[in-house]
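Figure 2 data, in text form.
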Amino acid sequence: MTSRKLALVAAACGLLALPLAAGVLPIARAAAASPAQALPAPKIDVALTAAGKTETAVLSGGCFWGVQGVFEHVKGVKKVYSGYSGGPGSMAQYERVSTGMTGHAESVEITFDPQQISYGEILRIFFTVATDPTQLNMQFPDEGTQYRNEIFYATPDQKRVAEAYIQQLNDAHVFRKPIVTRVDPLKGFFKAEDYHQDYLTRHPEQPYIATYDIPKVAMLRQVFPDRYIATPTTVFPLDGSKARPMKTAGVS
């Protein structure tokens, strides 16, 4: 953990003295122009693929702890890795990425079953719950290009869906400010160090996680009840045993 992140964790301790009220909005929805609810579904989506095949989505939306933690609770998601994308493999180490000088963004690689959830629906959850797409090169309280909003598309279909959905949301003015999320070709995804994987699930009471990320999981459960699963799909077994259901703040 960088010195900046340690400072943010210390600052978050003061915020934890305040109870999280029922229905609390995560940081990701602070810029929404409407009350807490799911964003409109994409009008354009990727066609359904053959049964038994999985697909991947690579997204950057701020600190990867929270984004990974959200998608580990999404039905149809088979695995989510925290990692780095946008820069060279030789620079894909946390301390280097944290300088903001590597070209990398903290990202997640989501492997999902397109028979259960579409690429467009992945983006819908991403913009509704996991990130604020109107913040440029930051996700409060984290600042720097390594925390930028970006969709790394792996296929022409993913590019088409991502660009169309951003245009759809901007045209509908669902956020108070324009979406600044970048849509760029995926050049590579590099898994983060093991201690970053499943971080939200392993450390739910850590001040930074409890303040900024647990409310996102609570919002997922609130606005996407049919998509939410209580037991997260983690990268590693927790405590050497099966993962346990997550208790989300503000949701009974």
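Caption note: The longest helix spans residues 156-172.
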